[in-house]
Amino acid sequence: PLTLCKSCGYRFRCKNCSTWLVEHKSDKKRLCHHCGYFEKITNICPDCNQEDCFVACGPGVERLEEEIKMLFPSARILVLTREIVSESKNVGEIIDKISNYEIDIIIGTQITAKGFHFPLLKLVGVIDADLGLEGGDLRSSEKTFQLLNQVGGRSGREGEQGKVIIQTYNPSNSIIKALTNPETTCFYSLEQKIRKTFNMPPYYRLVSLIIHGLNENLVKKSALDIFMVSKKIQGVEIMGPAPAILYKIRGRYRYRILYKAEKKFDIQNYLKNNLNNLKLHHTVKVKIDFDPINFL
After folding, report:
1. Separation between Cα atoms, residue 259 and residue 240, nearest integer Å
2. 210-223 pLDDT, tens per residue?
3. Angle between helices 185-197 and 140-152 in degrees, nearest 10
């Protein structure tokens, strides 16, 4: 989610990361979820000086809370997010309130799917279920399917039948369709077929190199140097270098190189032989991630 000026299009961006600032009305600040940088909420655009010109775009629990309060003004509402759980000293009291029917509606992020047992919960609604399918992550389909299955499983756990409603802009998507099938094996069979067709894990191996540093030009040069010394041989494919999806985090610029290798190929020895004698600037660091689960 982001906040923009509807007069000039200005967007609040983190000064340390290539991300938008997320508005937290309860804390009266706009916050970066990657480095913690924040700015106090104001009603004047810093670019065009217009007043009361901001509009929120994208999903967010606070926006959902505002809408639900209008639809159900007498409902007892609880917002449950990772930040609230990690900061709260009374998580047990929060869970007890839900279990004792002192809460009517829970508005939560992904954390609500992680191991909580709400015996009286009979209806689960998933807003913007498609979001997890975006962003270039190899495992996005797998993660989305597992997460939606988990959150759907919160409904009707005490013998009474529950209901799950999923909002989607693409109901013909194979993942969304698979969720309505009681046989979860149908999704995994389809995903295996796709992975095999495109030579992706578990049939091939991936290794991700993140080259990062404070100097943008040095990082780019180092990424090109690594690419140039990476020998093109049978059994391994080199993709990149390219700016990472999150190009800048905590003031550090980031480039990525991705290696795709056959299962029988000794990718560790290949990288060792190619990179051992390479001299990079002392401010540039390289992170090597075998079988990566994060593609940002």
Report:
1. 9
2. 999 999 999 999 99
3. 170
Alpha-carbon span 243 to 78, nearest angstrom: 39
C-alpha to C-alpha distances, 115 to 90, 95, 110, 255, nearest whole angstrom: 17, 12, 11, 36
| HSE value, Cβ hemisphere, 13 Å, CA-based, for 177 | 9
Segments of the chain assigned E as strands? 2-5, 22-24, 29-31, 38-40, 54-57, 77-80, 105-108, 123-126, 163-166, 204-213, 236-249, 252-262, 285-290
| pLDDT tens-digit readout, 49-71 | 999 999 877 777 888 888 999 99
Lowest pLDDT segment from 110-124, 190-204, 277-291: 110-124
Task: Give Cα 281 distance to the centre of its chain.
Answer: 31
By CB neighbour count within 10 A (0-12 exposed, 13-18 middle, 19+ buried), where does 254 fall?
Answer: buried
